[in-house]
Every structure is written in structure tokens, then in C-alpha cells.
Write a structure and sequence with these properties.
alpha/beta, single chain, eight-stranded mixed β-sheet, binds S-adenosylmethionine, 10 helices
């Protein structure tokens, strides 16, 4: 398979890519989203990677139940490794994917048998070639500024076209530091989309069905992550005490707080965020004003 053409990828995006690739390794799934747990887990034993994969399939089905009839062309922004795009393609949509990660590009091309075009770029840098009926942001909105998202989508959509977004959203604008602080503040996102000419057609809060994935992550980290860290620390303390003391210092200085916060992730989510699916429609008039050919 030909190698993707190299593009400049900023260090921040490379950190995000590394985290997403780690998530892929852990789940072994074609999706990078949280999933939709239905039925909800009733006990700790229900929190398994196998059930997460089932939840991820259910999320995709749920998401696509929001696509309005008559939609044909779809731009899947932040398409990951192609789970959603393959699902759409199989259902007769004309799809294109976009993400700033050569590794995802490779996996995407394999998953979609090379039949779905992939654009190796950030959404913010995506040049306009043609317009789409619907732009999908399946858990990718949190990686870009609200204005870039709203104005970029308005520029790329046909008049009357749709923007379908599913993501964690901050309900508390004062929560602005920590694990989920890159998620949009609800009112800021709403204002950016309204100003770009969109109106909200439909929304659903699926926080309860998404949250078990956070619980699963915490449970697995407690069981495997912490015990592995302790084991490696014990080995180092026996074998190379100076390195152990140095790493312990680094751990206490930079890593410990991150771990404490990670273990609190469910409480932070419940207190400051929600997870919503939102369907927005672009008015025909606003599109005519923003279109270069108008
Ligand atoms: C959590 S994953 C979601 C993947 C996929 N949509 C899904 O539902 O499984 C976030 C995606 O957004 C992409 N992404 C990050 N920054 C982006 C940007 N500036 N423009 C477009 N996509 C971006 C990531 O590379 C990744 O594909």
C-alpha cells in the first residue's frame, strides 16, 4: 500500500493521536468513541471490553438514526479508523473521511477497502472542493475551536444541509482545567453554530448510556494500570535504586495528580459535563452568503 504523503502535524495533535492509538490497542475495535450502553450495566462484572465493543456498535446505530431522510453525501470529520464510514458506505451513502493522523489513514483505507476517500488534514485546514449534505462530528468536535467548527461546516455544506455532532459537552463553563476541559462549553458551541447560520433540529442527552465507558476505564486502570506501575516500581527499587528514586520523584511531581484526577473522572463528568447528540441545519440564506460562488 502506498505510504501517506507526510504533512506537518503539531505536537499537540501528535499527543492526541498517541492517546487515541492507545485506546485502539486496548479496545481492538474499529471505533474510537465511547459507545452507547443499552441496557446499562447493573454490576461491575458487566463492565468488559467485549461489552464496550457491543456498546460502540449500538452508538453508531444510534448516531445514524439521526441522519435525515434524503441525505446522500457525508463528510466524516475526525473519522478515526473508519468504523462509522464503513457503516455509512454499506448503507448507500457517499462518504469521505478526514483526520490528521497517517496511522488512522492507513487503518481507514484498509477498513473501507480503499473505497472511501480519506483526507489527511485537520478540519481547520481542509480546502473546499465541493459541498456535502451532512457533516459528521462523531466525538471530534472537542478537538477544534467552536468558531472553526461552525464556520468550516457552514462553508462546506449545501444550503439546508445538516451538521450532526455527538460529543461530551461542558455544562459548567467554570470547569476549565483538567481531564475534560477541551470539551466545548454548551453555550459557546450553541452561539457559534447559531451565528454561522445553523438552527438546532434535534438533540438527545445520552450521558447515562456513555458513562459506563468511563467506569470501565477507571476499573481497568485500577486493576491493571496501577498494579503494573507498582510492580515495575518494585523491580526498579530492587535492581537499580538510583533510577527508582529518580522516577519516584518524577512520579510524585508530575504523574500522581494526573492519576488521582483520572480515578475521579466519572465524578468530574457527572458534575461538569454531559454527552449529547445534536442535529443542526444550515439555513439556505446563510449558505448563499458564505458560498464563494454566490
Ligand atoms: C475520539 S476520535 C473519534 C473517531 C471517530 N469519529 C469515531 O467516532 O470513532 C477523534 C477523531 O478526531 C480526529 N481529530 C483530532 N483533531 C482534529 C482536527 N483538528 N480536525 C479533524 N479531526 C481531528 C482524531 O484524529 C480522531 O480521528
Amino acid at each position: 500500500m502506498p505510504q501517506p504523503k507526510p504533512i506537518y502535524i503539531s505536537p499537540a495533535t501528535r499527543y492526541q493521536n498517541a492517546a487515541l492509538n492507545y485506546y485502539l490497542e486496548l479496545t481492538g475495535s474499529p471505533y474510537l468513541h465511547y459507545g452507547y450502553w443499552e441496557p446499562l450495566p447493573v454490576c461491575q462484572n458487566d463492565l468488559t471490553i467485549a461489552k464496550l465493543r457491543t456498546a460502540q456498535e449500538a452508538y453508531t446505530v444510534k448516531l445514524f438514526s439521526f441522519i435525515p431522510a434524503g441525505t446522500n453525501t457525508v463528510l466524516d470529520v475526525g473519522c478515526g479508523i473508519g468504523g462509522n464510514a464503513a457503516y455509512l458506505k454499506e448503507r448507500g451513502f457517499t462518504v469521505e473521511g478526514l483526520a490528521p493522523d497517517p496511522f488512522q489513514q492507513q487503518m481507514f483505507v484498509e477498513r473501507t477497502n480503499g473505497q472511501v476517500p480519506f483526507h489527511l488534514t485537520r478540519f481547520e485546514d481542509f480546502p473546499q472542493n465541493h459541498s456535502y449534505d451532512l457533516i459528521l462530528f462523531s466525538e471530534s468536535s472537542q478537538y477544534m475551536a467552536a468558531d472553526d467548527l461552525a464556520q468550516g461546516a457552514a462553508r462546506l455544506l449545501n444550503g439546508g444541509g445538516y451538521l450532526l455532532l455527538a460529543d461530551m459537552i461542558r455544562t459548567d463553563g467554570k470547569y476549565n482545567e483538567g481531564i475534560f476541559s477541551n470539551c466545548h462549553v454548551s453555550s459557546v458551541l450553541h452561539d457559534a453554530l447559531t451565528q454561522a447560520g445553523f438552527s438546532l433540529v434535534k438533540t438527545e442527552d445520552i450521558s447515562a448510556q456513555v458513562a459506563p465507558t468511563i467506569d470501565l476505564g477507571i476499573a481497568n486502570f485500577r486493576t491493571f494500570g496501577l498494579s503494573t506501575i507498582k510492580y515495575i516500581a518494585n523491580l526498579l527499587a530492587i535492581a537499580v535504586p538510583p533510577i527508582y528514586h529518580f522516577l519516584r520523584w518524577i512520579f510524585n511531581r508530575w504523574v500522581k495528580n494526573l492519576i488521582v484526577e483520572g480515578l475521579e473522572a466519572r465524578k468530574i463528568f457527572d458534575k461538569h459535563l454531559c454527552y449529547q447528540i445534536q442535529l443542526w441545519q444550515l439555513s439556505k440564506k446563510d449558505h448563499e452568503n458564505s458560498s464563494p460562488t454566490a
